Amino acid sequence: MTSTFELSGKRILLVGATGVLGRAFARAIADAGARLTLADLDTSPVAELAAELGASSHAIDVTDEASVTTAVAAAVAAHGGLDGVVANAAITSESLLADGDGFPPFEDYPLATWRRTLDVGLTGAFLVAREAGRAIRDSGGGSVVLTSSIYGVVGPDHRIYKDQPFQSFPGYSASKAGLIGLARWLATWWGADGIRVNTLSPGGVANHQSAEFLARYADRTPMGRMAAPDDIVGALLFLLSDASAYCTGQNLVIDGGLTAW
Questions:
Q1: What parts of the chain have a pLDDT lower than 50?
Q2: Given 109, 172, 217, 246, which residue is catalytic?
Q3: I need a labelling partner for 136 at 20 to 30 A (CA). Which of 27, 73, 105, 145 fits?
Q4: Active site residue 246
């Protein structure tokens, strides 16, 4: 009997494929048998990752409407349609550090950084969902997954960031909360078209943070640790696969119990 969790033959577009979660998502989707297209910035190693996994790839800038339209069209052309999309692009603490934006207090927070964060994390997901959703509808239905975060559900404990080189920042929480609302709206809009729309909200993922930060975060979770990337992939496969055929408009939280306190 075929597992309802597998993705054999399903045509999936993963946007934001080369980050710590994106790489884990890409490998899991490929291993599940999907016909996969990976998309990320042209400065990212997306082509190399795609070659490793036997996937197709395309450069995308989710803040550029024409770039999103072109990338989705390329994914459709590569596999003759689209059955699912994962909108996983976001501005992260690591990218803010790399770009020198820093983490000023909210009272001094730059409007440009706020706008950039929402342009990537929320408006970019809107564009991806709009373009990919049209293609999924034309292909007979499927699944849209937006990657949110526990910080779209609850506020951060700012104490665990004390004296760390990175901080939680307001645009991230606002964009992740916005994705949950967007998914619910889209779920009611596309339900009759056979398109399911859900959000996936991971807790904090270990990614070379300091031992002190890892310990502080672990102390905030009932399971006593941060997530590993592979802890999140099962939930993603559920949402993309036929196992979630009657699940739409939901936010699936995978956080080691942090929001259960």
A1: 1
A2: 172
A3: 27
A4: no
